[in-house]
Amino acid sequence: MAGKDNAYTVLKLRLSPTQAQAALMEKTFGCCRYLWNQMLADTQEFYAATDQHFIPTPAKYKKGSPFLAEVDSQALCAVHQNLRKAYLDFFRAPATFGPPQFKTKKSKKDSFTVYCRPYRTGPSIRMTEHGLQMPKLGFVRAKVHRKPLHWWTLRFVTISKTKSGKYFAAITFGYTAKLPQKVVPTASKTLGLNHSLTRFYVDSNGNCPTALPGPQQEKLAKLQRKLSRMQPGSKNYQEQLQKIRLFQEHIANQRKDFIHKESRRIANAWDAVCVRDADLVAMAQTLQQAGGAFPGFGMFRACLSYKLARQGKAYITVDRYAPVAKTCHACGQVNEQLNPRHRRWICPACGTSLSREINTAQNIQAFGLVEYFKQNAETSAA
After folding, report:
1. Of the candidates 189, 184, 249, 248, which has an alpha carbon nearest to the alpha carbon of residue 219?
2. Are 152 and 233 in contact (CB under 8 A)?
3. pLDDT (0 to 100) of residue 1
């Protein structure tokens, strides 16, 4: 049963649909977007009239919109579930999520979700060696680079289309996994990471990534300047726009590849990782260096968190207001007069010459370990 699953994994496949299948996918994208907007509008109208929250089901709209019957009903049911979850998240943390918004055709990515249902003839969705069998769509060819393990159970599939025109299927499997044994961190096996706008990060040992992808802003700007000189809507304009979309997708794939490989390397090598809970956007705006920075440190932190958790290791966050940059790692003295522009400074108490980035990473490691053992002591006492 779905309720017994305590772990999930996702396989993402590149789809190669036929012309008819692609047309049906486009129709499903549009129907899901239309249904979302209709349900959201009716929910807001009902709340304004009665001061009560109610989300109508998809069945209400099928009579007035017969084109909804042409697509898979499971995709329409998923829209209702997604809107319900969006409201639950908003009620739980309004400042974090915000209220649900209407969808437009200009969104970055179109998508719809289909849940796997058991039938007498077998599950409604099946994954094979050469593709994916789905309701309404039939068999869709795909590049299967990894086979699911035999104890995994297929739960749902999310079909998406990128701006460059590529179709992908994110297949979610559920399974029962044993909880990993908790690893108690030590100072020698704990790493502190300090975000760097020029080197992505600097760790507490003074190391930084060596395989960081090169900046692509100049080439992208050149493509965009060429696009600005073309007539919008012309054939050359559309071809140049497609080149920009493909190049932006290439940059994003490079970033994801680097982040996953680097986070996996760190998660396997260390028992705990300490990271400062900093506002990266505000930091880049304050220092006015965002143009030369390699983005994605927020995604990097998220990947580190779940990869460490799967191994029972600790991901420790240090308060953003902790004086990790002004504190001397050698003697613990806080230098309140430190200039934010100084990359190197000398401690006025002990005379130690310090590198700002390395010293900050070392303090993140020390502050993180203190916070970790403090929280565990409070939990044990409670």
Report:
1. 248
2. no
3. 40
